[in-house]
Amino acid sequence: MATRQGLDAEIVLQTAIEIADQLGVEQLSLAALAAKLNIKTPSLYNHIKGLPDLRKQLSKRGLVLVKEAMIEAVLGKSEDDALLAAGMAYVAFARKQPGLYEAISALPDYEDPELQEAGAQVVSFLLRILAAYGLSEEDALHVVRAFRSMVHGFASLENQNGFRMELDRDESLRRLLQTYLRGLRADAADKIK
């Protein structure tokens, strides 16, 4: 079957991202994607291996982009300022690209080497920030896990309309992260004693 002129794997992925961001990743189907691209569904197989492959690509792209957003936010910052900026950037990414963020949260295959590598890159980035705190590797990994739990929880609640009060959400997030950072500092100080 002939492919549409100018259609390539990147255009297919970008269109899938648009659908996921507008409707949610669970509403993304090959039929919806083909309709948006104005092609027949079988033509998609010239660019992707199927829906599981497409979801994997979405997850991988989301992990890369959330890491890039955090990197950009922390440039020129260190320690508490860097972690605060990374947390704010993480949630901002989830706001801007809710479907792509949802794809990260619902990784299709935890054993996939490409997804493991993309996830490891995010963890590695956060560990580099945490190096300034002088934590052991194990302690730093616990901090990364807790950090992700906080920002993911906040982003998920927000994306599901869990915050309905007329109150500045950025300020709530900032306070959450600052409270965590104070605890992290206190814990690190206790370990030095």
UniProtKB/TrEMBL annotation:
User: What domain of life does the native source organism fall in?
Assistant: Bacteria
Instruction: Give the matching Pfam families.
Output: TetR_C_33
InterPro entries to which the protein is assigned, alphabetical: Homeodomain-like_sf, MT1864/Rv1816-like_C, Tet_transcr_reg_TetR-rel_C_sf
HTH-type transcriptional regulator MT1864/Rv1816-like C-terminal domain location is: 83-179
Gene3D superfamilies xref list? Homeodomain-like, Tetracycline Repressor, domain 2
Q: Which UniProt keywords apply?
A: Transcription, Transcription regulation
| Protein name listed in UniProt | TetR family transcriptional regulator
